[in-house]
Amino acid sequence: MEFKWTEDHIAFRRKLRSALDELLPSDWPVFSKGYDNGSDTVVEFSRTFCPELAKRGLLIPHWPTQYGGGGLDAYYHWILGEEMWRNGEPRAYQYMSVNWVGPAILKYGTEDQKDFHIPRICEGVISYCQGFSEPNAGSDLASLTTKATPRPGGYLISGQKIWTSAASFADYCVLLARTGAERSKGISVLLVPMDLPGIEVRIIPSLQGQRSLHEVFFNDVEIDASALLGDENGGWNIVRHILSHERVGAPGYALIWRGFARALELMRQRGRFEGEAVRERAARCEAALCATRVMTLQTVDRRARGEELDDTVNFAKFHGAEAARMVGDFLTDYAPDLVLEDPIIGVVFRRGASAGIVAGATEVQLDLISRRVLELPRGF
Amino acid sequence: MDFSLNETQRAVVEAIDSAVERQGRHLPGSVDKYVTNPEFVRELREQGYWDIVDQDDLGLFGAVLMIESLSRSPYCLETTGSVLVWPMLGRGEAPEAVALVVAPATGPIRFAMPGASLVVIEGDEVRIASLGENDVQAVESHFAYPLGRVDCDKLEFDLAAGVDAGELRERWSIGAAAEIVGAATAALDITLQHVKDRILFGKPLGALQVVQHRLSICKVAIAATQKLVYRAALRPHGPNPALALAQAQETAVKVSQECQQFHGAIGLTLEHPLHHWTYRLKFLATEIGGGPASLERAAERTWPAGQAISDPLADVEAAWI
User: Fold this and answer.
1) Residues A154 and A210 in one domain
2) B277-280 contact pairs (CB < 8 A, 24+)
3) Which of A233, B27, B141, B271 is in Cβ range 3.0-4.6 Å of A180 for a Cys bridge?
4) Which fold does the domain B165-305 belong to in CATH?
5) What is the pTM of this model?
6) What is the pLDDT of residues B52-82, one digit of tens each?
7) In a domain, A108, yes or no
8) Which of B196, B206, B235 has the CB atom closest to A3's CB atom?
9) Residues in chain B closer than 8 A to A5 (CB atoms)
């Protein structure tokens, strides 16, 4: 066991940091509207930033070389994520393409799907949204009702999705739709172009940031059968694959930590970081962030070894949300003025509030741990 | 970066785990607040486990793995003092037990008993005394350890010249945190069995979601603590040991409370073995000044006075996580 980066990992981080120094506008905190990766400025910026990262070999370092990646281990992917998240994710929502859309297409896609999507992801010129949650199917995802009714040559999609990030500017939706009656065994995944007739998108104003939440309506949307990812009614395995990658796909702690440290530094400069109570409370947050990073890297280690992700993913996800909340609460108690004054502290405060909800409620993580790890009996 | 154990480390864990497993969870017929097992300790010593910290292929990390495993035993075993601290003092084989304290020694001390050696951290110095029959006043308590008070003014101390008091304290912190991980794991395991077996209103207690969630939170807390303990053992510098102990002490309080709660009244009896772990956890939560002191030490080392604060990821050349 060794918790130490290799020289090559450090060199890669150095290269990324230098690219960020060069490519991000000097007024990035203001330009990004307070590290908001759904803001119009960041999304527009990402359209040139991602291709530039791709040209420099920094967009998909961990993908197989045959698909245009760098063929490097999973830690490079993680270092990339940490560096991007420390800056509020200048790839906007293209990080999802790299983290889980691409890997799902590589694992389950047809050759035609790979030929279309993978080069575009590798070039940084395509973005996706995740059409999973519905008004009555969030944590209980298998109860979703959006239908993809078979018709000659394809499907007719009707239904509604909600809480969808990036839907108003994504090129494609990775859509879960019901193609059969059985709960989890009647679900399929479709790769749906967002410009098809019949798709309507409404932005839901939110506390989280701009365009982080949407409603998406599918009003008898016709789609070709070639949009089906994997087998018809075989979508649940793909969902599990996607969620396991998504749950610890984004090292949000990197941004939380930066904002937390920024708050402490401002407090120190103003003589407000001296009492025992505030320092002890801060140390508790620091311990939680340290543990989150180590637990998350443990899951990366499994990827690096080519092993399937295990339940440590749920541990890391739950603990990361708790750490983000602890920091948010710390800011509420000790630095509410700084939340309003400094963009990065502000975004960390906002993320603390949503940490237990986005990308899977913490209660779902606890249910999974109860059943799979503790092997406790189902009670309901 | 590597999160797997090497062959030697795995062999130690498997050997100790299976030895502890053979002991079972119950100590039949015992209503003692703690039960020692000198024979088991003798076996471990004879097999070289007490010298593990000085073995090149195991070192501090291997010793910590062993302490964690041993702390799952229902028996009360003195490990941190003998296995981690004593070898730093250069005084040969460890005595029967090693008690550790930071001066001034005002409260009861774990393993302060006749036949033990007392190691005192006093400022930058480390002092050692042998404890005889008349040096210790045994303290009766619920805590599942032998506890004793000593009057340091009446003891004859040797100065441990050249021993770094700071490093000794770090080792003690890491050892105590590893003990917490082991004891908390055992307390949670026995609680999980209990909530699966105990039927209430026609269903196992563990089928209730509130019970499931609270025990899952304990599981995550132990996993998080274990990672910080391993990090501190691999890199026993800076804030790592204090952060590990601070996190461990918080976990000790949480897990001991939850495990007692879900056992109900049976967990309050001395006939049930739960107290062997939960009451150890309660005492370990007070070690080296307890949680607040550990947090304060962690703060001192993470944010040294007069230095600008930045996040650990700011240092692009940082080799260690």
Assistant:
1) yes
2) B277/B74, B277/B144, B277/B183, B277/B184, B277/B186, B277/B187, B277/B190, B278/B187, B279/B33, B279/B142, B279/B143, B279/B144, B280/B71, B280/B76, B280/B143, B280/B144, B280/B145, B280/B179, B280/B183
3) A233
4) Butyryl-CoA Dehydrogenase, subunit A; domain 3 (1.20.140)
5) 0.94
6) 999 999 999 999 999 999 999 999 999 999 9
7) no
8) B235
9) 1, 318-321
Residue A72 has pLDDT above 70, yes or no: yes
Mean pLDDT value across residues A333-337: 97
pLDDT of A20 over the 60 cut = yes
ipTM field: 0.96
In total, how many domains does chain A have? 3
What's residue A248's pLDDT?
A: 60
Domain boundary among A37, A65, A92: A92
Greatest pairwise CA separation for chain A in angstroms: 71
CB contact under 8 A, B203 and A304: no
A11 in contact with chain B, both atoms CB, cutoff 8 A: no
Q: How many CB pairs under 8 A join A and B?
A: 193
- Give the start-to-end residue ranges of the domains of chain B: 165-305
Nearest one of A47, A56, A45 to A19, comparing CA atoms: A56
Contact assignment for B313 to A258 by CB distance below 8 Å = yes
Which residue in A328, A337, A359, A303 sits closest to A138, CA to CA? Answer: A359
Regarding whether A347 and A306 lie in a shared domain, the answer is yes
| Chain B residues near residue A273 by CB distance under 8 angstroms | 303, 309
Pair A26, A65 in one domain: yes
How many angstroms away from the CA of B209 is the closest CA of chain A?
Answer: 7
Nearest C-alpha of chain B: how many angstroms from A136?
Answer: 21
Interface test with A, best of B64, B201, B220, B320 (most A CBs within 10 A): B220
Q: In this structure, are A233 and A258 located in the same domain?
A: no
Does A203 share its domain with A257? no
Given an 8 Å threshold on Cβ–Cβ distance, is A280 in contact with B318? no
Would you say residue A208 has pLDDT above 90? no
Give me the domain span that covers residue A150. Answer: 129-237
